[in-house]
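Submission sheet (multi-component)
Chains listed below:
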Amino acid sequence: MNTTVETLYFPAPSVNESEILRYAGCREADGATLALLHECMEESQNRFSYRVCFCELPVRIEGELCDFGSFSLSSYHLSQNLHGCQSALVFGATVGMEIDRLIARYGSLSPAKALMLQAIGAERIEALCDVFCQSAASDRQVSLKPRFSPGYGDLPTAIQPTLFALLDCSKKIGLCLNDSLMMSPSKSVTAFVGIKDANSK
Amino acid sequence: MKFLDFLKQNIVYLDGGMGTLLQARGLMAGEQPERWNLSHPDVIVDIQRQYYDAGSHVVCSNTFGANALKFADSELEAIIGAALANAREAQKQSMLAQEKFVALDIGPLGKLLKPYGDLDFEDAVAIFAKTVRLGVKYNADLIVIETMNDSYETKAALLAAKENSNLPVIVTNAYGEDGKLMTGATPAAMVAMLEGMGADAIGANCSLGPRQLRGVAEELLRCASVPVVLKPNAGLPKSVNGKTVFDIDAAEFADEVASLIRQGVRVAGGCCGTTPAYIRALTEATKTETPQALCDKGLTVVSSYTHAVNFGQDPILIGERINPTGKKRFKQALVENDLDYILTEGVNQEEAGVHVLDVNVGLPEIDEKQMLTRTVDALQAVIDLPLQIDTADVGAMEAALRRYNGKAMVNSVNGKQQSMDTVFPLVKKYGGVVVALTLDENGIPATAEDRVTIAEKILRTAAAYGIQKKDLIFDTLAMTVSADASAAGVTLEAMRRIRRELGCHTSLGISNVSFGLPRREIINSTFFAMALENGLSGAIMNPYSADMMKTYYAYRALRGLDENCAEYMTAAETFAQSAGTATSASVAIPSAEECKSELQRAIIKGFRERAGEITAELLKNTPPLEIVNGEIIPALNTVGIGFEKKTVYLPQLLMSAEAAKCAFEHIKTYLSANGTAAAGKGTFVIATVHGDIHDIGKNIVKLLLENYGFDVVDLGKDVPPKNIVDTVCKLHAPLVGLSALMTTTVPAMEETIKLLRQEAPWCKIVVGGAVLTQEYAERIGADAYAKDAMETVRYAERIMGV
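Outcome: structure written.
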């Protein structure tokens, strides 16, 4: 079995300000908060690099066992998520290290800005994942299941080293795995996305 | 023939891809290709022989991932020994007559370095060193460091190669579609750093095909004085019927690379997807080409982790504010190990428009080596500018240069033999542009002539150490004009002659000239203009001085360095604005909180500057303690209670906390100038636990605790349990706060708590972080769980009984 890992660079996805405010723990934004949001958006907007590496794997589900050919794992929640799929995308995505640097820059100089930048980073990586999944679905003319990441439900983060080896994330998109299984850069995602069988509803 | 001699005279062909060929011969997904050196030596030898037969001069050993992170020592030695023996066997078997060399191949470790990853720079150097020593032991002819996508890791690998071998070293980086490394470095920045450290050839490999790498190759050719290397992929990989195919064939590949060889690329080969057929096509396509002559670009250049800064016609501003001389508040920050204060100076100067930051943290009562290293680490983590390492302590200089991620400026060397004998070897080893002061054993000469003579002596000695003219910047020493009326004239004359006659770049510490005079900025900015007109390349100066910045922008406009005077016009607008606010100091604060004082309203609304200004004003006739207890604390309480009642949200709470911090900063400066310090409410040690590199939450808690008067000792992130326990014991701290973001780092928290219970039974432990709950906190043995920063403050107040 020969898996091809492809790398994609995306243009900046459109921004959802209310999502950012939600990540910042702010249900109602006053003028000062909005000014802070806009200042941080302006300062960070050229600091992102939207990169994804991915491959397509066959899937065979047997009970809780999810078999992807070159590796398999046991997870009730992932098996439910991928139920009815013949294949799945596995991807790693990152918006790059610059946002980590910006967050660190303001970490002690201005925790308010750091908080807002961190919320922007969280919104950006989610937006990147959305854009990637949409384009993957339309390229293949299929519909996709909701993406499912290590750490969701009973899918352990211990699976991360396998995904990183499979996708060669550090070489392809500069995404590295730390000994604690945290990812660097921090605004990054790895996930499975089930490809719905065209024949089944 | 020696490889370096061959490189001087010839176009050098490297080999092509290995991984894809091994997969075709049965390497399974997830299997380590390096082990095939031992299990399938025949396959490895066969592929490598094909490369020699295709015309490669250099074949790389199959050791891309052969490092101590992946393999135990004994297996690592077996693999590298076998890999080099295989390549040697291939060299022997090949019937072609060209010069043939065997390179030890070194790839990246797959880990990001600290502070954004978890691998320490020195650990990375040690890991690479093991591989290098084995390469030497098993007789590699040269070392190829390749596919590095981070500048800091590249430095670690090259440093290991230089410290553990005398072999020639080729270094190639993997550039992305944006023409930069994954962590942001441009080709110019990489050339500056790698040439400075003595790489023998520098280039690009992997990631893209030759067409997409054209821009990178051209930029490398523009900057590099050493041979440029290009080893692209066979285009981009695509999956076709379950097979990986690359989108450029051998003929097209050879065509593209050949055209770059005609532009000056001197070392070429292929990376992923290329095969012996690609290399054969390339050597065929270029067999009549003669190598382009190498020329020294003569660039005086320093770099940071992202970009290079060139000394030339356009003046370079070097910010002088990170320096304790004459600054009580700065000295206090050094004594208290307050890196935040230093970082603020760095960020402010960057925003003020400097190009390089001078870093001087020397103080008799502190360990300068340790402080300078920590400061360089902290600054380069968050600031994009190149740094100028400014110290008289050679040990500190070496430690800082070693950890610096780029090519630093070094301040300074002088004409004393002892100074040159200690500083030049460091510049040679780590790279750098060194500021050379025109003084020697006999002091500072009174005449320009004698200063030029010293400069010539320094140039000769530098050359003997292998340091070129382009890596020296002469400082002809600005002396106090109030003490000697001819001082400025001599300095300028010496500078002009060094620039014109010796062809060297120059710098000056501008502000010395005005010492002892009133309104020094007037003298400084005029002297600055005179110096620029006399050939000053870089000024060590105060960027907060509007007069200095006005001179800078005006000079550039007048000298034709500022197209359409665009930057001057932007700057002029700023100057006009700041002049405007100075006359109408009191900006109206929206008075929603009618009953509160102006300072309280500024804090509640989160107006930082205003809170600072009002505090400074109040300090003229109000005791500091009265301001704290009567104004700042009540304002913080208003916001804190609002947060607890959920009428105020976290960003607003933090903006208020920052405004309060600004007010406190003025009070601290006031107390420091009067030789007193505020009495705190008690020591609170705070840290993000081992393995966890996220510290936003911890920083928020720290800010609020400081505002409420606690002496916070911040140990940072990814802190081993022992460090936390040692600090708690040393300070006999009554309280410690631990933060963890991920379930995978909670065990480190538990371990820390266990150790604290043994060693510091008096200490109360409060924990927080995204994954923690009350129940979880109890299970790992903490005294308390705090769901947010305010709760931590309330808990600390309870424990301390305040």
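Remark: The mean pLDDT of chain A is 93.
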